[in-house]
Amino acid sequence: MSKLLGSSVKSFFNKLFSRKLSDKELEELEDEFKLKLVENDVAYDLADVFSKHIVNKLKERKFPILSSNIQNVLIEEAKQYLLTTLPTEEVDLIKEASNAISSDGKFIAMFIGSNGTGKSTTLAKFAKLFKEMGFKPLLVCADTFRAGAIEQLKHHASLLNLPFYSSKYGDDPASVAYDAIKFSEDNALNVILIDTAGRAHMNVNLMNELRKIKKVVEPNHTILVIDALTGNDAVEQARLFLEFVGFDSIVLTKFDADVKGGTAISVSYVSKKPISYVGVGQKYSDLRPFSMKDYVYELLFS
Ligand SMILES: Nc1nc2c(ncn2[C@@H]2O[C@H](COP(=O)(O)OP(=O)(O)O)[C@@H](O)[C@H]2O)c(=O)[nH]1
Ligand SMILES: [Mg+2]
User: Which residues does the chain have with pLDDT short of 50?
Assistant: First the structure.
């Protein structure tokens, strides 16, 4: 997990003196802190309110106090602030699936996100997890647009030795998803994982297509897959997919390679949706549940 944001926040706090700072010095400190956060992939909006909050807390302190105390007090303030500002609920997809299957006979999860973020790989990771937990997953490719999409997901399914459903290129993705549910019922499968198309950039047709699939299949859980390494783009994707399609939680992929750490708090901040799991590698077993509480602690204290 990332430690860089932690050390940059610490180095910021190290600069504080055991005397009352002038308004000008406080302003400079606020700007410097904001910049450090933005450099570490924290979305500008969040960096702005966060740095303001911390500097305001600093203004309230009585001086002189020991600088080591200031650090502890401010790190504690930062933790409190992030934990009250960010969604901290923990998502258990296995439990959600069990509940849905008890009441409904099936659990439908839909995966959305931009191209190359790791949608198909993440879907395959969930398929393996559900299989191991005793469920009967079906991998569905509702991307009938991009050449190779069907073969790629089919390949994941065959490596995992799990059933796969799709149609042919050019078919209506919503019909494919609808037919896949019928197929799952006929074949006693109870976890339906639907892969969808992505585009490199925001595209109205794609958003309409995703909305239509969602309306037709009524997924129990829609997952937005986001690449942790894409910084500002990741934040923009969270905003757009929330506005135009809607989702229940985020899976942040390539978390294994994220040295900055700001993307996780930023995508949750802008969407107010929890990160349910993170991808920590390319293997099917590289999927971990995510706890925002643990993550914030790690960011600030490690
Ligand atoms: N290091 C790392 N690579 C990942 C992770 N998730 C996906 N990838 C890689 O990202 C690339 C794109 O993944 P893919 O599932 O095809 O993306 P899609 O276009 O969104 O379906 C592949 O090379 C994956 O192996 C992850 O959590 N960590
Ligand atoms: Mg894909």
Answer: 1
Q: Is the CB of 257 under 6 A from ligand 1?
A: yes
- ∠ CA 58-63-68, nearest 5°, is 70
The number of the ligand 1 atom at minimal distance from the alpha carbon of 287 is 27
Helices (H), 86-172: 93-104, 119-132, 149-160
pLDDT of residue 62: 63
* Ligand 2 midpoint to CA 120 (Å): 4
Taking the C-alpha atoms of residue 293 and residue 265, their distance in angstroms, rounded to an integer, is: 11
The two three-digit tokens of residue 61, written as one number: 């302190």
Cα separation, 33 vs 42, in Å, equals 11
* Angle at the Cα of 78 from the Cα atoms of 74 and 79, rounded to 5 degrees: 120
Spatial CA neighbour of 36 closest among 2, 3, 8: 8
Residue 30 Cα to ligand 2 middle (Å): 41
Average pLDDT, the chain: 91
Q: Which amino acid is at 118?
A: G
pTM of the complete model: 0.94
pLDDT tens string 117-149? 999 999 999 999 999 999 999 999 999 999 999
Pairing of strands 287-289, 275-279: antiparallel
**272 phi and psi angles, rounded to 5 deg:** 60, 25
pLDDT of residue 1: 43
